[in-house]
Specification:
Number of strands: 9
Number of domains: 3
Structural class: alpha/beta
Distance between the termini: 48 Å
Shape: globular
Strand order of the largest sheet: 3-2-1-4-5
Mean pLDDT: 93
Helix content: 55-70%
Length: about 350
């Protein structure tokens, strides 16, 4: 079978295949069960396989790569314009096959197992922090029903809980005191699990040479460095640093027409978690920049004075993303004397 390009629509159990030959004629249209996928592509001669960058895509990309196929992943939003008529698995596979053959299409880099491991740590930690915040809010709400207001901050809540349980004059009933003990244990359990994952991230940042180099950038610590390595790898899928910053949603959105340029706020595209880490790191740098006189600190403080500290934080996050791209693609560490990446 002379198949040169295949569009594969991934699923849990049923996979749809659409293949074309050198004349762009469709010669394969079939469904495969999960158990049939590996055997089918092992027998197929090496070709280009396109898939949407969705659940299990990186796993299958690595598997097909070991079989000798060339695999390219496409963001789902870039496939949708090629879907004809109604949405179904067959039309989705055909759209993927069409999109992967476009010369100017942008692709997603295939992640390694190590990258996915670190990314899993970050995802689990982020979810635990969200659940811990929800638990803290629940405790505050329940205490409010008894007329007790706890100061803002999860640290203040941790300190207040033992005192509230020991205070016999605060009006809490015996039943609620027992319930509060369970809620306190839940909160402590979340703290323990988050601390354990923080240690995992610290170890990953210490053992990864690339993450260590990224930490030379002011505003990027162990969490930001490991998140960058797990998300973008060597960053060679981007032609320049500004492309990576745009992919992370750190550049202005645009709504221009008729030769009139209109720039909006940041686009907020891409990985929101990674963007959050970069902006929080920039806020930490901005907090102490007023006490420094180096060019980088003067630049960001000038923006904060003219615009707003939030605008300055995003501008610094954008700059850090572009410097990170230079370190990932060219090597070296950040040179504070010149405000740029010093290649090895």
């Amino acid at each position: 079978m002379n198949v040169t390009r295949i569009g594969l629509d991934l699923a849990k159990n049923v996979f749809q295949v659409h293949g074309v030959d050198r004349q762009e004629s469709a010669i394969v249209k079939r469904k495969l069960s999960r158990s049939q996928v590996r055997g089918y592509f092992e027998k197929l001669s090496p070709c280009l396989i396109g898939m949407e960058a969705c659940a299990s895509a990186h796993y299958w990309a690595r598997e097909f790569g070991r079989m000798g196929h060339q695999v390219k992943l496409i963001a789902p939003q870039f496939v949708k314009p090629y879907v004809k008529s109604q949405k179904n698995d067959a039309n989705d596979a055909e759209a993927i096959c069409e999109a992967v053959g476009r010369p100017n299409m942008r692709f997603v880099a295939v992640k390694t197992e190590a990258q996915q491991d670190v990314q899993a740590i970050h995802r689990i930690r982020s979810e635990l922090v969200r659940q811990r915040t929800a638990k803290a809010n629940q405790i505050r709400g329940l205490l409010g029903e008894y007329g007790i207001a706890v100061p803002i901050g999860i640290g203040a809540l941790r300190r207040a809980l033992p005192e509230l349980q020991e205070d016999a004059e605060n009006g809490l009933s015996g039943v609620f005191r027992r319930l509060l003990t369970g809620l306190r244990e839940d909160l402590e359990n979340f703290d323990t699990r988050v601390a354990a994952l923080d240690e995992e991230i610290a170890i990953a940042a210490r053992d990864d040479a690339v993450a260590q180099r990224l930490q030379s950038i002011p505003g990027i610590g162990p969490m930001g460095a490991t998140a960058l390595v797990s998300a973008v790898g060597d960053a060679r899928q981007f032609k320049r640093g500004r492309d990576m910053a745009a992919c992370l949603g750190l550049t202005p959105g645009q709504h221009s027409s008729g030769g009139k340029e209109r720039l909006l706020g940041i686009s907020k595209r891409g990985d929101s978690y990674l963007r959050l880490l970069l902006i929080h790191g920039a806020r930490a740098v901005l907090k102490v920049a007023g006490r420094k006189t180096d060019p980088r600190s003067c630049w960001v403080m000038n923006i904060a004075a003219r615009r707003h500290k939030n605008v300055a934080a995003v501008a610094l996050a954008n700059k850090n993303a572009r410097i990170a791209w230079a370190l990932l693609t060219q090597g070296g560490v950040y040179d504070a004397r010149h405000g740029m990446a010093a290649t090895a």
